[in-house]
Amino acid sequence: MSGNPAVVMRLVASAYAMAEKAGAIVRRVLQSGELGIVEKTGANDLQTLADRLVQQSICASLSKSFPKITIIGEEDLPEEAIKEDLIESGQSEDILQKSCPAEYSALKEEELVVWVDPLDGTKEYTEGLLDHVTVLIGIAYGGKAIAGVINQPFFNYQLGTESADMGRTLWGMPGLGAFGFELQEVPDGRRIVTTTRSHSNKLVTDTVDAMEPHDVIRVGGAGNKIIQLVEGKASAYVFASLGTKKWDTCAPEAILHAVGGKLTDMHGSALCYDANVKHMNSAGVLATLRNHQYYASRVPQSVLQALKP
């Protein structure tokens, strides 16, 4: 586009470059063999050196380029000087060339909230399930997810690809579209549910069963599950439990909405991404590319009663 790009387009273009750098950091830490694993609340809630370095990189880079935005990251890290080589100041020229949807063209920095998950699927990362791992940068305005960037650091790793050619970055914005992947749908009539791999319980299994799926996929990472929806590997992401946080869902929701999908809690209510909301998605997550109402209507009453927003 000609002239000065809108603030939100500059932010997305920067987030894209930051996500690419993050992917390189995630690969580098794995190659070093020194993951620096610490348990946060237990064996299913881990943090690695990659989580720490990526959050420092993304948050410091965002703060430097966009000092007035609100940034909320998953990791609770001490204040410390950030090494210069972690700062990313580049931008995606392709994104800067796109026309900003009119409703977002006048947004100011201070109106935007960025939700950062530096490593979604940390447990899988430590176990070598590398295709589950994503870096998530979600942008919200007025409580809604309006843009999202997802980096998959190890996309194509099974092909034995050289590290420099590994990985990909997807991004999307409702009203503009989604990029970096080929949109596909599950064959008509097939109900394939993707759900949690390591955080299951009776509420989760009861809800999955109520969907009467033809197949169930259990994988790690919220970002990974949304990618399954938009690439035709699953028709619904069903997680009827506490567990996901706003930084897990903001970026994926924006990309899903950009292609006509829907992400809500188990009651069918929209999630809110204001800076002051509670971080936990306490009423679960239900996401679909199509036919959201079918899946929402199948959620058992006992589950709805157990999961209060």
From TrEMBL:
Gene this chain is encoded by: bpnt1
Catalysed reactions listed for this entry: 1D-myo-inositol 1,4-bisphosphate + H2O = 1D-myo-inositol 4-phosphate + phosphate; adenosine 3',5'-bisphosphate + H2O = AMP + phosphate; adenosine 2',5'-bisphosphate + H2O = AMP + phosphate; 1D-myo-inositol 1,3,4-trisphosphate + H2O = 1D-myo-inositol 3,4-bisphosphate + phosphate
Membrane-traversing stretches: none
UniProt entry keywords in alphabetical sequence: Acetylation, Hydrolase, Lithium, Magnesium, Metal-binding, Phosphoprotein
InterPro entries, A to Z: CysQ/Inositol_MonoPase, Inositol_monoP_metal-BS, Inositol_monophosphatase-like, Inositol_monophosphatase_CS
Name of the protein described by the UniProt record: 3'(2'),5'-bisphosphate nucleotidase 1
Pfam families registered for this protein in UniProt: Inositol_P (PF00459)
GO MF annotation list: 3'(2'),5'-bisphosphate nucleotidase activity; inositol-1,4-bisphosphate 1-phosphatase activity; metal ion binding
EC class (word): hydrolase
Binding residue positions for Mg(2+): 74, 117, 119-120, 248
Family statement drawn from the similarity comment of this UniProt entry: Belongs to the inositol monophosphatase superfamily.
EC number(s) stated in the UniProt entry for this protein: 3.1.3.57, 3.1.3.7
Superkingdom of the source species: Eukaryota
Keyword presence, Phosphoprotein: yes
Record flagged with keyword Phosphoprotein: yes
Signal peptide segment: none
Single biological process term from Gene Ontology: phosphatidylinositol phosphate biosynthetic process
UniProt cofactor(s): Mg(2+)
